[in-house]
Amino acid sequence: MHHGTISPEIAAGLKLLRSRIAQAKIPSSKLDETINLATWNIREFGAGPRTEASLHYVAEIIGQFDVVSVVELRDDVRQLRKVLDILGPYWDVIYSDYSSDAGGNHERLAFIHDTRAVTFTGLASHVVPSDRKKDAKSDYISDIAWWRPPYMAGFQAGSFDFILVVAHIRWGGDGAVGESDRARELTKLANWVAAKAKEKSVTDKDLVILGDFNIPTTAGPAFKAITSTGLQIPKALRGITGSNLAKNKRYDQLLHLPSPVFDKAFTGQGGVLDFAGDGGVEGLKDLFKGIKGTSSKGLTYELSDHLPLWIHVNTDNAEAKLDQVLSQGRKRQK
């Protein structure tokens, strides 16, 4: 981490932030053995001015992990570049293009990663609908368009190679856009995952689906939609009640299909990193004491109204893959 020359106020804020990070008990990662994977909605990242302090805080939080999927990165990536400078020369980013209409909200999706621990394997793409049909004009169209197309990229850490698929599902209240509307988009994503995992030429069947799905509760129709084809929450994250500042909404998710590889990879350690220190919005005020120029919209626009959701991953899974090959061989013999 390269915080460089900073003010006493930022130094004090970083010390407080580090004490809150310590309470999350995120284990250290080990080269070729373990990594820490996270997903974080950084509120309107790049949309408006942020203080120097907030960029240092964002970098400090991201630096606790080895790869982070980022939601709500906006078209202007200058703040992202400043955060990468603070993180240091080993850090890199892969990000999508943005949609310029109101539905896309000028948002990009991104994967920020420490290249010493995680290697980008070459695959990066928006998710292409798998159920397109030919219409009367001989055009291939899908029955539903993404508000913001999910984005995927392939990575390898140790002997674990995997594809991360990040999404930011549409938002709205119970009026024009309610949970049932989100369920349509989530069902489409679930169907795409199921179909992709069955493809013969897919580069890797170990898909991790993560991001901000705007799911209020795991008991509602939105969660039932995303899990309709078998996606499930890793055991380490099943007790999480919320990923918002109040910790009462399960907006953010990290999901996978049942697999012996994931049973081995996903350890029993995971959770949310509460940078507000259980104080919600009030807890953010202590981080910005004496710092001028904070957002007129509120401190959640300096950091976020979402907490990072993380899991510790075992990347030394060669034995599990061998067991998977043997299991598939036995099935073919039958």
Describe this protein's structure.
This protein has eight helices and 13 strands. It has helices spanning 8-23, 52-62, 78-87, 179-198, 221-226, 260-265, 280-285, 318-333; strands at 34-45, 67-74, 91-95, 107-114, 119-126, 133-134, 140-141, 151-157, 160-168, 207-212, 252-256, 266-272, 309-314. The strands form three sheets. Strands 3-4-2-1-13-12 form a six-stranded mixed sheet. The N and C termini lie far apart (54 Å). The mean pLDDT is 90.
Q: Can you lay out the helices and strands and say which pair or pack?
A:
Elements (H helix, E strand, L loop, with lengths): L7 H16 L10 E12 L6 H11 L4 E8 L3 H10 L3 E5 L11 E8 L4 E8 L6 E2 L5 E2 L9 E7 L2 E9 L10 H20 L8 E6 L8 H6 L25 E5 L3 H6 E7 L7 H6 L23 E6 L3 H16 L1
Helix pairs in contact: 1-2, 2-3
Which fold name is given in CATH as the topology? Deoxyribonuclease I, Chain A
- Give the helices and strands as they follow along the chain: HEHEHEEEEEEEHEHEHEHEH
Oligomer: single chain
Largest sheet: 6 strands, mixed
- For the record, the count of structural domains works out to 1
The CATH superfamily bears the name: Endonuclease/exonuclease/phosphatase
Kindly report the spatial arrangement of strands forming the biggest sheet.
3-4-2-1-13-12
> What radius of gyration results from the CA coordinates?
20 Å
